[in-house]
């Protein structure tokens, strides 16, 4: 092996064994620097004869070029390895872990409220809302409830401290106050339901100090009790998901309706469960009646031209009946085991097409 080939092999081995950029730079200087071995070899060309230069020039220049290329490639390899090491050290896993099984559920009251809204929306009813803290005037007076009525006593109603102007406020005992608010700002025809929280001083297995109620109101020039019965029948069929229901009307009394009716639904209580549309038993489900002309007059609607009907029921009680929940107090205890047992999937949106 010639001295030129031996030098090339020695330098290429040093390049290949360079562990970092600093070591590679030392090899480059030792070979290609001003006093490097290849640079010194190139300097000898000046003292050679033309024939010697013609023979050795391409060898020495080729050696320089091959070493330069080897150093460049090694520097690139060292830079890539350093980058890989840095990326591995600084790596952050931004991928999401496997999504666990969903633990949250929709509360039965929320689910049933959505079911009720979906059904009445299909029947042409809009949704109206109002505040939980209500004017005594809207909650009682404009609904034709006299000052000495038992419902206005403190044992039944939560009263709020009087306002600066002397106005009396209560935690609304019914969402009928939303009907008043609607009639005060909207001219007939009116067709609304008013779902929401209500408050009364009562607590046992079937009553809660705070509960949920839905009320409906229709006001126009020609509506009558036949329309009311049809709406309640259609709602009951859709809500309980049965093809046939039978409702029975009983006379009752509410200050804001005249005449007043309570509706029972035919059911079968045998076997430890309730089945609707069959059997010989009856269960109260709605209170209703034709809107009292005094209420219309109190809300600025001419009772000689317009008439209407109103109805209402407890959302919590509807949920208990439909889904077999025995105690209303369970709705408000925040027991995760109960919520898991009776809750609904967040994707189980109630629709009439897809099923409630």
Quick summary:
The protein is built from 11 helices and 11 strands. By secondary structure, the protein is α+β, with helices and mostly antiparallel strands. α1 (3-17) runs parallel beside α4 and α2 runs antiparallel to α4 (50-89).
Supply the key terms.
single chain; 356 residues; BirA Bifunctional Protein, domain 2; three-stranded antiparallel beta sheet; eight-stranded mixed beta sheet; alpha+beta
Structural commentary:
- The chain is α+β, with helices and mostly antiparallel strands.
- The chain has two domains: 3-89; 108-342, Bira Bifunctional Protein, Domain 2 (BirA Bifunctional Protein, domain 2), CATH 3.30.930.10.
- Helices cover 40% and strands 20% of the residues.
- The chain contains eleven helices and eleven strands.
- The chain has helices spanning 3-17, 21-32, 37-43, 50-89, 108-122, 136-139, 176-185, 225-240, 293-298, 315-323, 336-342; strands at 126-127, 133-135, 159-160, 169-171, 190-199, 210-220, 247-254, 257-268, 275-276, 281-291, 307-314.
- The strands form two sheets. Strands 1, 5, 6, 7, 8, 9, 10 and 11 form an eight-stranded mixed β-sheet that branches.
- A hairpin with a 6-residue loop joins strand 8 and strand 9 (275-276).
- It is rod-shaped.
- The model has no long low-confidence stretch (mean pLDDT 87).
């Amino acid at each position: 092996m010639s001295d030129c080939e031996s030098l090339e092999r020695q330098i290429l081995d040093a390049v290949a064994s360079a562990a970092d950029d600093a070591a590679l730079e030392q090899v480059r200087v030792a070979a290609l620097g001003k006093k490097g071995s290849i640079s010194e070899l190139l300097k000898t060309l000046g003292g050679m004869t033309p024939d010697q230069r013609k023979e050795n020039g391409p060898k020495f220049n080729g050696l320089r070029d091959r070493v330069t290329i080897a150093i460049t490639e090694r520097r690139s390899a060292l830079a890539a390895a350093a980058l890989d090491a840095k990326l591995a050290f600084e790596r952050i896993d931004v991928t999401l872990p496997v999504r666990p099984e969903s633990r949250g559920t929709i509360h039965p009251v929320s689910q049933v409220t959505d079911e009720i809204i979906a059904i009445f929306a299909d029947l042409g009813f809009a949704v109206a809302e109002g505040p939980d803290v209500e004017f005594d005037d809207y909650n009682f007076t404009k609904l034709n409830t006299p000052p000495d009525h038992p419902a206005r006593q403190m044992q039944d109603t939560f009263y709020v401290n009087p306002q600066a102007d002397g106005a009396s406020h209560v935690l609304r005992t019914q969402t009928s106050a939303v009907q008043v608010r609607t009639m005060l700002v909207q001219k007939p025809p009116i067709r609304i339901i008013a779902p929401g929280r209500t408050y009364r001083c009562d607590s046992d297995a079937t009553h809660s100090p705070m509960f949920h109620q839905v009320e409906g109101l229709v006001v126009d020039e020609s509506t009558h009790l036949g329309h009311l019965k049809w709406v309640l029948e259609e709602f009951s069929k859709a809500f309980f998901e049965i093809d046939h229901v039978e409702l029975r009307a009983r006379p009752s009394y509410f200050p804001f309706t005249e005449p007043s009716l309570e509706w029972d639904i035919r059911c079968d209580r045998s076997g430890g469960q309730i089945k609707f549309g069959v059997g010989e038993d009856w269960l109260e489900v709605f209170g209703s009646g034709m809107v009292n002309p005094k209420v219309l007059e109190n809300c600025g609607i001419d009772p000689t031209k317009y008439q209407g009907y109103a109805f209402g029921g407890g959302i919590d009680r509807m949920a208990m009946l439909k889904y077999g929940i025995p105690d209303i107090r369970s709705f408000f205890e925040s027991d995760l085991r109960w919520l898991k047992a009776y809750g609904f999937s967040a994707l189980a949106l109630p629709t009439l097409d897809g099923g409630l």
